[in-house]
Amino acid sequence: MDKSWMPMAKTPDGRLSRPYIEGVNTFINFARSVVDLSGNIPCPCIHCVNCYRQSLQIVRIHLLHRGIMQSYVNWYNHGEPRVLNENLYDNEMSDGDHMDGIDALVMTNLSNKGLDMMLELLTKVLPKDNLVPRSTYEAKKILRDLGMSYEHIDACKNDCALFWKENENLDKCPVCETPRYKDTLAQGKNIPHKVLRYFPLTPRLRRLYMLGQRAKDMRWHIDKRVDDGIMRHPADSEEWKEFDLQHPDFALEPRNVRLGLATDGFNPFENMNNNYSMWPVILIPYNLPPWLVMKEPYFMLSLLIPGPHQPGNEIDTYLKPLVDELKELWEEGVETYDAYSKEHFQMRATLLWTIHDYPGFGNVSGWRTKGYHSCYTCNDEPYSEALESKIGFINHRAYLPMEHRWRHSRLHNGLSEKRKRSLELQVGKIQEQLDRMPNIILGKHPSNKKRQLIGEPNWSKVSILYKLPYWKNKKLKHNIDVMHVEKNISESTYGTLLGIEGRNKDTDKARIDLQNMNFRHTLHLKQRPDGSYDKPRAFFSLSLNERDGFYDFLKSVKYPDGYAANISRSVNAKNGRLSGLKSHDCHVLLQRILPIGLRGFAHKDISIVLFELGSFFQDLCSRTLKRSELEKLEERIVLILCKLERFLPPAFFDVMVHLAIHLPREAILGGPVQYRWMYPIER
Questions:
Q1: 355 and 218, same domain (yes or no)
Q2: What is the pLDDT of residue 560?
Q3: Where are the beta strands (DSSP E) in 489-617?
Q4: CB neighbour class for 171 (10 Å; exposed up to 12, middle 13-18, buried from 19)
Q5: CA end-to-end span of the chain
Q6: How far is Cα 426 from Cα 429, in angstroms, rounded to an integer?
Q7: Range of the domain at 343
Q8: 257-263 vs 349-355, strand pairing mode
Q9: What is the spatial distance between Cα 197 and Cα 64, in angstroms, rounded to a whole number?
Q10: How many domains in the chain?
């Protein structure tokens, strides 16, 4: 077939030319051989991209008005046989993560100028009639033909609203009346204060089914997964199975997509002194098998929320386009072509849960993560107390059985513990609290003064995610990030034992806490005649010689390639510092290094409880989990925290240490933590 007319579709004048019109007519006549019973054929225009079936007349109008996909050089959906090169490409992509062609060009970290130089070289080396794009701009146009473009949506300077849909033509914010534009160029072009980049989700989900092997992988959770009571994947979790029972019509189609939403702020300028924070929102398709699901090529950037300041509670303003699309994908779905089964189906999608650090937890969920009620799971029954310098979460003995002897031990806070707490949170309690929430006006404009806490007990808003019809009935909505919990516990532990300034929880104020609670009298500050205070050494603190011995041990440890960073570089024995550790370094320290390295230096009781703490996180982070083992982990972490309360000062037990007690229950609901923590997202 003569296809020389196809490049004319790039410009409006070209689409009006006689050769292009005759070429479209030739294509329509050729495609009559694949007309279905309804008289429709796949439409290859740049919007339908062969995923929608239209009548011959509508296809002709689309091709004349929009143009044909430039990448559709082999008309295999309209009667032409597939060429050998395309089959080879399918096989290459099915073998692993190998990418070719335009995918390889756009998925590296090559700069625009570098890509321009490479494309210019290729056009000179290859024959004259090659199809290599001449510039980065032309390469991006090819991506737009594939339906992978993004939208610019202007936003209010104060994060009140988006100039989108009903507000699209406004020049002032409908909430605070702040002007939409900050300046006007000489050419008459307006410059908005903020611009949200929105990457539509639907074409990216449909693209997963355009390749036969990937379409097959998207059914792994139903075709290949073994249901033997061992959790290896989110599909083995209680939350996934409970959702199937609540929505059987959704579960009947295994190709319907389950998604996780992750977000965090980062500095795009790689300069930590520059106070700028940009927030990407990333979606993770959980249908894929374990060896693919958390890989970077399958992460979908959905939103790029602009800075310079973090959105805070106003993140709901920016989530609106995504939530609206998720709602459409749940209620109506979208027609999608499955390259594996060679058929069309109505694809729907659902959001399983969100992933973020704990401040991000508060932004997305609407629950304030500060104050006496900062623990979301404990809700309105926290065991937090006001300490000299912070709010402490102590008395974990309340989670012990009522007959346990430690409930009456005076070694904890000098008092008996008679209260009883459960590790479960009823979904109905949260919904009752949110039903009483008044309407909150979002925005950082000056007239919107700092609001009093009007939600009981610690709500600041009703999250926009509750607009999704299925959201309120979910038990696990927002994950506590295991990575940050490990990091905070690790830093507090080695900081207190080694006496590192800024990390040490055994401060003068911590000793005053002991005095106020009237226990551990040997550690109370003792006043000297001159008015100064003497601070007795605690048995859990390492002496200078013991600390130097531990630092020598850290410097001597060798790690397998890829297992950990060179932690010895973070040791500065001269000033007694252990600094510059990353999250994964703290992960390795807590689970492997501290329990072994401190034996012989720290007190025996401390060494034992550190070993138990490291073993707990090792088991929790295991690739495979069983419910019975997780229930035992719940009992173990309660005992571990109670043991730590007998030794360490109350100031050690902030909310991040306390959150460890809820991690086994979340693993029961959500499955292995590797699918619900921030490591792959932050990388």
A1: yes
A2: 86
A3: 526-527, 533-534, 571-572, 577-578
A4: exposed
A5: 47
A6: 6
A7: 199-367+460-479
A8: parallel
A9: 29
A10: 3
Pairing relationship of beta strands 577-578 and 571-572 according to DSSP bridges: antiparallel
Q: H helices of 332-461, where?
A: 358-365, 427-435
- 3-state helix, strand, coil split of the chain in percent (to 5) is 45, 15, 45
Domain end position, chosen among 100, 116, 132? 116
| Same domain flag for 605 and 668 | yes
Contact (CB, 8 A) for 191 and 185: yes
Please tell me whether residues 583 and 658 are part of one structural domain: yes
Do residues 531 and 645 both lie within one domain?
yes
Q: Distance (Å, rounded) from C-alpha 115 to C-alpha 474?
A: 46
**556 close to 459: Cβ distance less than 8 angstroms:** no
Residue 395 falls inside a structural domain: no
| pLDDT range class, residue 80, cuts 50, 70, 90 | confident
* In-domain check, residue 411: no
Output the 3-class SS for 449-474: CCCCCCCCCCECCCCHHHHCCCHHHC
The answer to whether residues 174 and 304 touch, using CB atoms and an 8 Å cutoff, is: no
Residue 402 falls inside a structural domain: no
Q: Where are the beta strands (DSSP E) in 286-348?
A: 300-305, 334-338, 343-347
d(CA 411, CA 35): 81
Residues in the chain: 683
Q: Which two tokens stand for residue 74?
A: 């082999």
**Band (450; pLDDT cuts 50, 70, 90):** low
Q: Name the pLDDT band for 100 (thresholds 50, 70, 90).
A: very low
Burial (CB < 10 A; 0-12, 13-18, 19+), residue 471, is middle
| pLDDT score for 272 | 58
For every residue of 194-221, which 3-state class applies, written as one string? EEEEECCHHHHHHHCCCCHHHHHHCCHH
Q: What whole-number distance in Å separates Cα of residue 656 and Cα of residue 269?
A: 29
Q: Is the pLDDT of residue 26 over 50?
A: yes
Tell whether the model's pLDDT for residue 140 goes beyond 70: yes
Three-state DSSP state, 344: strand
482: nearest Cα among 583, 629, 368, 565? 583
Least confident of 44-58, 237-251, 265-279, 473-487: 265-279
Side chain identity, residue 405: R
Residue of 391, 54, 342 lying closest to 209 (CA atoms): 342
**What backbone phi and psi angles, to 5 degrees, belong to 367?**
-95, 125
Q: How far is it, in rounded angstroms, from Cα 99 to Cα 107?
A: 9
Same domain (yes/no): 547, 662: yes
Handedness of CA 152, 158, 164, 168 (dihedral sign): negative
Minimal CA–CA distance to 5: which of 23, 30, 18, 31?
23
Show the tokens assigned to 305. Answer: 């929320």
- Domain termination site, one of 69, 88, 116: 116
pLDDT tens for residues 609-650? 999 999 999 999 999 999 999 999 999 999 999 999 999 999
Determine the angle formed by the axes of helices 482-498 and 604-620, rounding to 10 degrees. 170
pLDDT in tens, 283-323: 999 999 999 999 999 999 999 999 888 999 999 999 999 99
Distance CA 672, CA 669 (A): 10
Q: Which residues pair with 191 in a beta bridge?
A: 183
Q: Is residue 181 helix, strand or coil?
A: strand
Distance CA 401, CA 421 (A): 10
Structure tokens at 303: 């939103």
Q: How far apart are CA 640 and CA 656, in angstroms?
A: 15
